[in-house]
Amino acid sequence: MAVLAIRKYGDPILRKKAIKVAEFDAALQQAAANMIETMQAAKGIGLAANQVGQTHALCVVDVGLITEGAPPQAFVNPVILQESGKEVGYEEGCLSIPDVNEEVMRKERILIRYQDLTGAEHEQECEGTLARVLQHETDHLNGVFFVDRLSPLRRKLLSKKLKAIAEEAMQELRQNRR
Ligand SMILES: [Zn+2]
Fold it and tell me: Which residues of the chain register pLDDT less than 70?
């Protein structure tokens, strides 16, 4: 297993739509294991594949924070089929947008369809923190950040900070290419 570098806001891969996973092989399991290790090292509760520079539709969630004792879980090809309940506000952060925390409005319940690492399909109703994290991660796989969901005013107030993060991300990319 390996801890991978986390891509930051401004890195073009974070705006790309993930590609559907078709092969449920050892490489996929390895990718998920690396993502779980990376998420844990960064003390995150969720991580999407494009955040570590990969293009497949895979995210991992530390469901242990929600269901005590449960191991981190991989969600392959996740699709939110339904959102329901009230719109609720919750302060979100993101490993790709360091030091930015903002209240985001989302529906409190979702019905999600996903595959596990063996390819078996599941449909699950979630609420609370799990629904929140899965919406955030599914957004990533569609090239969307939580800051995109803020009001134009909030985004404007953040624009300098985001610009600075993006400049740093581009610098890191250039360095890694050398
Ligand atoms: Zn995020």
Answer: 178
50 CA distance to ligand 1 centroid (A)?
10
Domains present along the chain, CATH in parentheses: 12-177 (3.90.45.10)
Q: How far is the CA of 96 from the centre of ligand 1 (A)?
A: 6
Is-above-0.85 flag for pTM?
yes
Torsion of CA 123, 124, 129, 131, to 10 degrees: 50
pLDDT (tens digit, 9 = 90+) per residue, 89-126?
A: 999 999 999 999 999 999 999 999 999 999 999 999 99
Active-site positions? 137
Which H or E run includes 105? strand 97-115
